[in-house]
Structures are given as C-alpha cells and as structure tokens.
Amino acid sequence: MATLTELRAKKGFICDMDGVIYHGNKLLPGVKEFVNWLYAEKKPFLFLTNSSERSPRELQQKLERMGLEIDESHFYTSALATAKFLKKQSKKNSVYVIGDAGLTNALYEAGMTINDVDPEYVVVGETHNYNFNNISRAVQLVLRGAKLIGTNPDLTGPGENGIFPACGAMISPIEVATGKKAYFIGKPNPLMMRTGLKMLGLHAQESAIIGDRMDTDMVAGIESGLDTVLVLSGVSTMSTLEEFPYRPNYVLNGVGEIVPE
C-alpha cells in the first residue's frame, strides 16, 4: 500500500474541482491548507475539471471569492479540451451548442461558428438553459448527420444541496432518440490528461491525480499512468469502491489529509 510520504513526494498534482475543492459556492475543509502547501513546496499543480460551464478566469474568480488566490494558468476545463479537439478535427468549423458561456466562448476562440441549420457537430455540456426545444433541435441535427460530442461523460455532480445531473445525463436523451453514441472529450479521455501533464511539464510517474469519481478521475489516472487519490468529499463513498474492478492508490476523506501535520 502506498504511503502518504510517497504521495507528498510527488513533483506535481492534477486536481479535480467539484467535490474536491468545493461544493457549489462552499469551499471544502482543508483546501486552503492544501493549496498553501503546494505553493510552499513549489509543486506544479493544475485544476482539471470536467465541468464546461465556466472559463478559467471565471473559475479563478470563483475561488478568489472563497478566499483562494490562484493564477488563471492553473485551470483547464473540458470546454477548452473540446474546443482544442474540434479545432483539429472539424472541416466546416460549425457547431450547434447546448451549454453555458464557458463552452461557447472556448469554441468561439478556437474559430468555431454557431450553426443551428447544418452544423458539422452537436456539442453538449452542462447548462442551466436545458430545455425541450434545444434537445429536439439537437436530435434533428444529429439525425441529419451532425456528429455528437459531449464535453464529459459525468452523469452527476456534487452540489451544496446534493447531487445534480451533469453532461452525461443531459446528452442521454439525444443518444436514445437518435441511436447515436456521443464521443466524450473530458476525463477519462487520455486527450485531456496528456494536455494536463504537458501544462504541468511533468511525466505521469512524477504526478498524482486527485478526484472524487471512480468512473472518471480514477480511470483517467490509471490509464494515463498517474498515481490516483480518491477523496470522499464528493460523490464517492467507501462502498462505491466495491462497485469497480480497480482501486485507487490512496483513499482520503479530503485533500487536507495530504498536508503534513
């Protein structure tokens, strides 16, 4: 069994946000101490989130409101990863989007145009503007040949008031109605992990990933060669571990336990 001493010796960390750093607008216990420790030890770190709602600047400002001052360069989202993927893959640079500003802005900056007539891709991310009309339009466009992309496969996410539906749940009606399966860009897709490691400037063996999900965060780490740290401050519990054929290297109550006493 790996020890906390070995974990603390890692050169850098990739860290999920929802359920690890905060719930909604509430900072989780031990987070400030963990971030202060990362800075004090001069360890490169990256907040790598499957959420596509907010831009890195918005995430930076959100943490600032909670009392954490972290540079914008420490954030990478599934929206940015999706925009990067489509910039390389798309021929027409046209998309129909169901998602919030973090996703649409990332796509605009990658040179994509919004098209609700004959887009090459239908792209779905988390949004508070989810309704029957945009789902129906997406179904029609996919049936006409548009390719279906999801920013991440998460079915649920943790919030201040409990569990809420995430991208995987929101895209499901489109998949069922069209018979088409979405391609998901966020964790555990290695595309996102490779970019994260490149941003850290480290090799997988030198790093650890911290997350609250067995089905995305832990798979991402295992398949990319990083040590895995499951925290029980989000959607997972100890009983959750028994549902999967793999185990994380570490199971902690929260990130605060990484900080030496």
Please characterize this protein's 3D structure.
- Keywords: Magnesium, Metal-binding.
- The active site is at 16 (nucleophile), 18 (proton donor).
- Mg(2+) binds at residues 16, 18, 212.
- Belongs to the HAD-like hydrolase superfamily. NagD family.
- The chain is of the alpha/beta class and 261 residues long.
- It folds into two domains: 4-50 and 187-258, Rossmann fold; 79-184, HAD superfamily/HAD-like (Rossmann fold, 3-Layer(aba) Sandwich), CATH 3.40.50.
- Helices cover 35% and strands 21% of the residues.
- The chain has nine helices and 15 strands.
- It has helices at residues 4-8, 31-40, 56-65, 78-89, 101-109, 132-143, 167-178, 190-200, 214-224, and strands spanning 12-15, 22-23, 26-27, 45-49, 75-77, 94-98, 113-114, 121-124, 147-150, 156-159, 162-165, 183-184, 207-211, 227-231, 250-252.
- Strand 4 (45-49), helix 3 and strand 5 (75-77) form a beta-alpha-beta unit.
- Helix 4 runs parallel beside helix 5 and helix 6 packs across helix 7 (167-178).
- The protein is globular.
